[in-house]
Amino acid sequence: MLCLAPGEALERDYVSKLLWPGRFQAQARASLRQCLLSLDKLLTPHAGRVLDLSHGRIRIDPSGMASDLADLEGALDELRATDARGLLAAIGNKPLLDQMDVGDPFQEWLIAQRRHVESRLAIGMDRVLAALERDGDGQARTQLCDAWRARGRAPVPPQERKTRIAVLPFAQHDAIGGPLFLAEGVVEELSFRLGGITGLAVVGRTSVMSIAGSGRTLPDMASALNVSHLIEGTVHRFATGIRVNLRLIDGSSGTEIWADRYDGTVSEVMGSRHIIGSRLLAGLCTALGVDTQPTPARKMTTNRDAYAMYLQGRDLSLRAVGDGMIAKGIELLEQALTIDPDFAECWSALAEAHLYIAGFTAVLDRGHRAQSMADCARKAIALDPEQGHARAMLGVYEFVNGNPVAALDLGYEAHRLAPHDINVALRLGTFLLNLGRPTAALPYIEAVVEGDPVYGRNYAALCAAHLCLGNFDQAISAGRRMADLGFPAPWLAIAYAANGEHARAVETYWGLRTLLGTMIMRPPGMPQIDDDARDAYFALAAKGVCSGDPEARAAYCAMLDALHQTMLDPYDNSIAFPAIWMGHAELVMKIYGEQTSLANIFGLMTLWADVDPIRRTREHPDFLRFAERVGYVAAWEKYGWPDLMPALTGTK
Predict the structure, then answer these.
(1) 453 preceded by a cis bond (ω within 30 of 0)
(2) Coil vs helix vs strand at 217
(3) Interacting residues of 50 by C-beta distance below 8 A, sequence separation 6+
(4) What is the pLDDT of residues 149-188, one digit of tens each?
(5) Minimal CA–CA distance to 545: which of 507, 515, 578?
(6) Following DSSP, what letter does each residue of 556-572 receive, concatenated?
(7) SS3 (DSSP) at 386
(8) Which of 82, 171, 443, 529 has its CA 20 to 30 A from that of 149?
């Protein structure tokens, strides 16, 4: 157990309950104590005092141990393909910690560990295969893939032979009229089905939509989206039926390399979706040189009106900017569900819409919205147990309600069900970031950015991950990209300050003032203020957060204390975020100890940056008690302690 996570501490009480579940607590503790004494006696002659048995926790010194798993992960991290291939062959299909049965609690823990390790290995394989592809070493890629497959139970590596494509919006030509969103429906289903094919990587919808209407040429769009191929098409509706024309475009030249046509009826498209599932999908895969796998269609509605409202509602709910946009989206999604209450995908979209309205608009009912999100997600799962996205939404609910263990359980299960869904990867990655695991989170976040490269909000998580890893240049690069894409980027200012560029950080933070009320929401209930008052507030905030001046920090901390006492939502992110960035430990622990919300949860991503003053919260003597109270410690015990926590524990 210790060697699965070298250097990370396990709580004695937790281990004793796992390994001696049928005994009284005092007996279990005594058994563990005797076991540890025996282990220490056996190991010390060979490796020195590798066991740290202090502070109610136990850990093993990484420098005094080696394991096949650690060697394999090291080879993958360092892109040593030959070593990784040999280690995979040696390990074969042997299960992790096989032939150990000490009761149900341990078995439950072991299942979670196996899932977690398998996910880490798959991500490591992804990186190595991508590097071999860049180097043009096809033989080494093939050999490594063969070794991976030989493990039997393991899935095909994610990056094997991946071709990056983007499905552009289809034009609809309608000879009848009326609100029937056939073109959007065909694009949505095509993107979903192609995304489930192992050899393809399909760029996310938000990035495609931001590029498609820019007036660029096809090669320029392909370059901006970092894809080798584009898919475009048209949908014609006549009185007697429909016709779908599909074209595969070479991204570098903009020339057509394959085309096909489907003639049928609206009922066939709405009902069976054979249009996507058979000839067109198979033809596309043949043209792209990838194997067609059986990718089942989603459980959608057969009602035209419900489907049209779902498409409109989902589109509006994804637009987190604009008065009433998300609320109107929720209204349309609810109307769709009134028509067809068994529309699982719509319930999942409604769950996400409740998250967005609570996270990105000035509402006061964030707790109610979180409950609505969870109710919708549960309904989606009940109708379609394969709903990965809905499980990720339910994980968010568990996190804000003080159960990060359940959040990670749901996040990993969601990723297993929907490994190609970038929304699922984003949720899982941010759960890990929030819990101080940026090393584990980064591959998920990088996959999100790769899959949706022109959606600015994704770069907030990437910036935060690199900030917490101490990669300040990469954090600044991600923050700049976010700003270039038109999104507010306070994380860029924090990255500048972490890098010692305080004047630039202050200037960047100060520049956010012009976005107040548009891209940056006002706190709930905040009245309109004139430009002078706004500028004075942002001047105080920018200096307090970014200047490194102790007096400026103290002044803004006092301002946040006052706002926490007087604002309608005392837990609003406009208070919580700068409290984290200034290391205002007492206020941070008070806010997140009383109410983690769908709006302030994102601030936790930067709590783990190892820079002053942010680190002051973690160094506060009450932090571990706070972490235990809000459920972080339970999550660490099951899934691994924070990257910085072993060093922190050792100083206590």
Answers:
(1) no
(2) coil
(3) 43, 44, 60, 61, 63, 64, 65
(4) 776 544 444 444 578 899 999 888 876 665 556 788 788 8
(5) 578
(6) HHHHHHHHHHHSSSTT-
(7) coil
(8) 443
> How far is it, in rounded angstroms, from Cα 44 to Cα 64?
10
pLDDT at 159: 46
Query: Tens of pLDDT along 511-541?
Result: 999 888 777 878 888 888 889 999 999 999 9
Q: What's the CA gap between 385 and 54, in Å, rounded?
A: 44
pTM here is: 0.75
For the stretch 218-271, pLDDT in tens is 999 999 998 999 999 998 888 777 888 889 999 988 888 888 887 777 666 665
Q: Which of 450, 511, 500, 515 is nearest to 478 (CA)?
A: 450
Return the closest-CA partner of residue 310 out of 320, 299, 321. Answer: 299
Quote the pLDDT of residue 268: 64
Positive or negative, the CA dihedral 448, 451, 457, 463 is positive
In this structure, the number of other CB atoms found within 10 A of the CB of residue 630 comes to 18
Mean residue pLDDT of the chain comes to 86
Greater confidence (517 vs 632) lies with 632
How far apart are the C-alpha atoms of 597 and 37, rounded to whole Å?
A: 45
Sign of CA dihedral 117, 123, 126, 130: negative
Please state the φ and ψ torsions of residue 92, each to the nearest 5 degrees: 60, -140
Bridge-based pairing of strands 163-167 and 200-202 is parallel
List, in sequence order, every residue forming a beta bridge with 52; answer none if it has no partner: 59
pLDDT digit string (tens) for 55-82? 678 888 888 888 998 899 889 988 899 9
Q: Strand 229-237 to strand 163-167: parallel, antiparallel, or no bridges (unpaired)?
A: parallel
- The candidate with the shortest Cα–Cα distance to 147, out of 86, 205, 206, is 86
Task: Quote the CA–CA distance of 347 and 337 in Å, as a whole number.
Answer: 8
Residue 442 to residue 325: CA distance in whole angstroms: 32
Q: Which residues contact 223 (CB under 8 A, 6 or more apart)?
A: 251
- Amino acid 176: pLDDT: 67
DSSP 512: G
83 or 120, greater pLDDT:
83
Tokens representing residue 67 in the block = 């394991």
Strand pairing category for 171-174 and 229-237 = parallel
Nearest to 4 by CA among 113, 99, 85, 108: 113
pLDDT value at residue 462: 96
Amino acid found at 266: V
How far does the chain reach from its first CA to its final CA, in angstroms? 23
